[in-house]
Amino acid sequence: MSDFSELPKRCLQLGRTSWDVYHREGAAQLIKSVANFLSTHDSREYALAILEYCKYKHEYGSSAPHPHDLVYINPVEINKWIDYTKIQEIDYLEHGTVIRDGDWDLQFVREGRTKPRFKKMAKSFERHFEEGTPWEDTELYQYALETPDIHEMYDPDNGNLEERLSKLDELYKELDEVGYKTQRELDYQGLLSERSSAEIPWFVPPEVHEIEIAVTRNGDLVWWGGNHRLHLTKILQLKGIPVRVVLRHKNWQDLRAEIARADSIGELSQKAREQITHPDMQDVIT
Question: Residue 136 burial by CB count (10 A; 0-12/13-18/19+): exposed, middle or buried?
Fold first, then answer.
């Protein structure tokens, strides 16, 4: 399991920036800059992610889930999704990972490959990439033309529609020819899109922009975020793609802790034994 290995480097970078501001503009401007930094959404979320991890590390030891560790899964195993209208009741962290008890996995998790509002997109992806249907003849394209409040990335009025669909073609080709690359690999190679690069503050690891999932009490993999990439990996039948777990049920985390503590399989409960090969257990198996 990794740690916040980049935190010292990021703190050093922050320190140097603060020193430069102090020397150029004085103490008053430094205080103002620090206050502005701490007031941003991303800085708060990142700080909360660190605090949450420290709490879990104290409680669970080696099985504590790191917010930026990746789990490698077969995307066809994701056949459920979480109801976004209910997630505020879960109290999750955008840049972290959380463990939550209760019945959220019974109340807010839905069956199916995708959310209803993304079905047009999923069907259009299949028609375009599998059957060769031109984008202009897909439901997604027609929906974008007819729907005034569609997401800005598909807004035909500002030219985003054609550009976005062209980028999806490029992404599909890259996935097919090269395979799936992590956001960190793309970052190192300078291949993150301008939009993605602009959305990632310097102190936030690129892992926060991976496909995101939740894990229920029974180990079910539930789609949380990263819709386009997930659909493309399923169409291409890719295996072993990286995802970030943003939410685990406490019962599932207790199984992770049990496996991490055990010195042999014989010490495990039957339920824990059944989950030994689960992708979210591989980091705790010693």
Answer: exposed
Report yes or no: 232 and 125 within 8 Å, Cβ to Cβ.
yes
Q: How would you class 184 by CB atoms within 10 Å of its CB: exposed for 0-12, middle for 13-18, buried for 19 or more? A: middle
In angstroms, rounded to a whole number, what is the distance separating the alpha carbons of residues 69 and 78? 19
d(CA 263, CA 169): 49
CB burial class (10 A; 0-12, 13-18, 19+) of residue 56?
A: buried
Residues 6 or more apart in contact with residue 40 via CB below 8 angstroms: 201
* 3 state SS of 189: coil
* Token representation of residue 259: 């496996």
- The C-alpha atoms of residue 173 and residue 189 are separated, in whole angstroms, by 18
| pTM higher than 0.85 | no
What is the Cα–Cα distance from 136 to 166, expressed in whole angstroms? 12
Query: Smallest Cα–Cα separation from 166: which of 123, 200, 128?
Result: 128
Q: Provide the sign of the torsion angle of the four alpha carbons 200, 206, 212, 216, taken in this order.
A: negative
User: How far is it, in rounded angstroms, from Cα 257 to Cα 272?
Assistant: 10
* pLDDT at position 158: 60
Alpha carbons 215 and 221: distance in angstroms, whole number: 5
Spatial contact of 106 and 43, defined as CB atoms under 8 Å apart: no
The 10s digit of each residue's pLDDT in 29-46 is 767 666 666 667 677 788
Helix (H) or strand (E) holding 162: helix 160-177
Strand partners for 101: none
